[in-house]
Amino acid sequence: PKMTLLANYQVPRYLVDEALLHFDLDKSKTRVISTLKMRLNPESSAGECVLDGESLDLVSIKLNGKELEETDYQLSDKSLVISEVPDKFELEVITEIHPDQNTALEGLYHSGRLLCTQCEAQGFRRITYYPDRPDVMSIFTVTIVADAKAWPVMLSNGNLEEQGQFNDGRHWVRWHDPHPKPSYLFALVAGDLYCQQDQFTTMSGREVSLRIYVDPENKHKCDHALVSLKQSMKWDEAVYGREYDLDVFMIVAVNDFNMGAMENKGLNIFNAACVLATPETATDDDFYTIQSIVAHEYFHNWSGNRVTCRDWFQLSLKEGFTVMRDQSFSADLNSAAVQRIDDVNGLRSMQFAEDAGPMAHPVRPDSYIEISNFYTVTIYEKGAEVVRMIKTLVGEEGFRKGTDLYFDRHDGQAVTTDDFVKAIEDANNVDLSQFKLWYEQAGTPELSVKTHYDPINQRFTLTLSQFCPATPGQDNKADFHIPVAVGLLDSQGKNMPMQLQGESTVYDGDTRVLSLTDSQQQFEFIHVSEEPVASVLRGFSAPVKLKYDLSNTQLAFLMAHDTDSFNRWDAGQQLMINVLLDIVDDIQKQNKLAMSPLLLSQLEAILQDKQLDPALIAKMLTLPSENYLAAQMQVADVDAIHQAREFAKQQIAISLKRLFNERYESLSQTKKYQFNADDMAARSLKNLCLSYLVASHDPLQIQRCLRQMKVTDNMTELLAGLRLMVDQAGPEREHALRAFYEQWKHDRQVVDKWLSVQAVSKLPDTLLRVKALMTHEAFSIKNPNNVRALIGQFCRNNPVHFHAKDGSGYRFLAEQILKLDKLNPQVAARMLGALNSWRRYDADRQKLMKASLEHIAAEKELSADVYEIVTKYLA
Ligand code: DPP
Ligand code: ZN
């Protein structure tokens, strides 16, 4: 497989002004007639015309109406090259494809009872020969012909222009999308689908018809997504001034889907799990995620579709920006503090690991072998942080001015991250040239903080310094421009006035943003009447690792008093990490274990706080995950971490049992399920209390858990109960699992949860169970959601069993990857991520993991997807 380099970018030689596609749809053999109106790009010069194409049966080619001879073109398994073309021409290519044999789920494929497409990034070339790159934008008109009984609904992008019947039982439709778009945004869906409709009136008064298409058995599951869609449309008008631009907006739910969802113009296609929900079948987390994914895909209509990417190295142009937009949407509609905590938690546990490992790459990468491997947490989540920092630097209003200019200047174009930054600079008259290193340099910078208080002169000095470790291909890093939000707290926990040396007035506000641009800088605060505790990196103002040696007492102080809710939570997390790592140390030294009374008293105070949002209480009482703890150690000791966390959890449970009990009972009054911030907060705290009560190892609490499962009206509480039950060996566990399955076996979304909870069980026979479940009727290795629920959860979220000392977890993963690679390379490559941090474990485990990686690498016919990752891991 070969490497593609950003440095080799060249403009396309031929452009496509119009693409007329005709589909004769059939499950096993679909005929595609593509008529392209092409011309020489004025920025290029004439030469051979290269079209991408993979897994296609070529039937015929006509150039300006004349059939081409085999000597006029060269065909390979990746392209069709026509040696000579005029400057302006019409090309007609007929191909045949086989949707029911497409297990990779790229291009046109068959899923359940429907046919659908996935074209991002390079799936369109599996439908027809085409310059399949995002900087070729064309106007698409799509005609679909198929048997009317088998395929009653036939959809594509844009507006429906015409439709009709033939008298042989077939029917046809024609869709026209007036907005020029790259091929990756093309979509087609056909099937016997139920449609739920609604309406939205845009800010300029246009009526848009909203439609969600689902399998008929899911017709009761569309309400939440429709509400979310209307919320998104309204929010994008209010916050970014962006209005929708077609008469219809459609969403289709599909059971077999590699990603979460796809923003095809006017026709979003969703993984069913990311759109369908009822209180009985989906948890609060599902409702929350669905709201944000519906928003994300909708927001792409501007950040991605109207203004798209020049090439795939610019992927974060649309993804980073759009994630940042969906995160602010969720923060506005729900609890901003909880949203920030969850975003940062995800970033630290996933992206920091990626940035510290063998696949580390910049937000704008400069090379790839397989672009599908770059739909990463770095492109998405770190990319979102980078855009968020820009907003922090230019302020809310300045950011809006910048995005207005960006959308205005580049509407209908395929552009770069440089163009994005330039628009913000031009609108605000600022220089972001140093800041742009965030796009170019990989790795997580470390931000070190030192403080000094001079009581005589009442001066407080904050010394900030930065360092970024080397990453593959980047040994030396230049200094970043890091926005550091700080506040100073007095001994009462009140924010103190801030005035820097050289400033004539006191800063107006509790938090101010300092810009660190050198490797080390001092910030001198004057008129500081007592020694403060500095609250640094408030709201997590930059994606860095904070090195700030606060004592446990100072952390406890911030945990109790910081007015920045993110930093308040984070101080608690740091305190927990300190305590847990001490316990790990005691385990390694075989010392007697003890729980920190300081942490216990802090947790007690939080649990008793009646003013604090219950959702925040739940977050503050949640111990850092085993994976995140592992990332804090030089050599990750999986078993000791597990033991330490279990020990701490039990100690907290026993000490605070009365309070957990009271809170649980007070939150238990039965109330019909509603998805709103208050009720969600109450359920999250209630379930957290239950998990601690069960951790106290009091058998009565198991009964309480079973009772919750019995009386509840919603999946949030039912699943929380089941999750706790799967860690309890015995007949009650088996009964609970069986009953759950019997009740829900008709529902794929729920069955995936049933698979997941079993995959993350702490009980010793978990791997055997997982293997057995792979032969269960509920599991198919061809379904990505099944694979992620069972294999993915086991390998990523069950560290003690995945990292079993005998290597059984690693061998299991390798075996599954080799099997999956033959079916679906994207899913196979994703699963490999579980071995990303393999060099951070002890020598024995490293050896075993390496052996599994080598076993995979030895396979002769690996996909480019798996090949790229496995060779980078072993490099
Ligand atoms: N469907 C993916 C997303 O929306 C890729 N564009 O992020
Ligand atoms: Zn996206």
From TrEMBL:
One MF term from GO for this chain? aminopeptidase activity
- Domain Aminopeptidase N-like N-terminal: start-end pairs: 21-185
Q: Which UniProt keywords apply?
A: Aminopeptidase, Hydrolase, Metal-binding, Metalloprotease, Protease, Zinc
Q: Which reaction does it catalyse?
A: Release of an N-terminal amino acid, Xaa-|-Yaa- from a peptide, amide or arylamide. Xaa is preferably Ala, but may be most amino acids including Pro (slow action). When a terminal hydrophobic residue is followed by a prolyl residue, the two may be released as an intact Xaa-Pro dipeptide
Q: Which cofactor does it need?
A: Zn(2+)
> Residues in domain Peptidase M1 alanyl aminopeptidase C-terminal?
553-874
CDD domains, per database record: M1_APN (cd09600)
Alphabetized InterPro entries for the sequence:
Aminopeptidase_N-like_N (IPR045357), Aminopeptidase_N-like_N_sf (IPR042097), PepN_Ig-like_sf (IPR038438), Peptidase_M1 (IPR001930), Peptidase_M1_dom (IPR014782), Peptidase_M1_pepN (IPR012779), Peptidase_M1_pepN_C (IPR024601), Peptidase_M1_pepN_C_sf (IPR037144)
Q: What residue stretches are annotated with the Peptidase M1 alanyl aminopeptidase Ig-like fold domain?
A: 443-549
What Gene3D superfamilies does the record tag this protein with?
Answer: 2.60.40.1840, 3.30.2010.30, Neutral Protease Domain 2 (1.10.390.10), Peptidase M1, alanyl aminopeptidase, C-terminal domain (1.25.50.10), tricorn interacting facor f3 domain (2.60.40.1730)
Q: Which Pfam families match?
A: DUF3458, DUF3458_C, Peptidase_M1, Peptidase_M1_N
What region holds the Peptidase M1 membrane alanine aminopeptidase domain?
A: 228-435
Q: Which family does it belong to?
A: Belongs to the peptidase M1 family.
- The name this protein goes by in its record: Aminopeptidase N
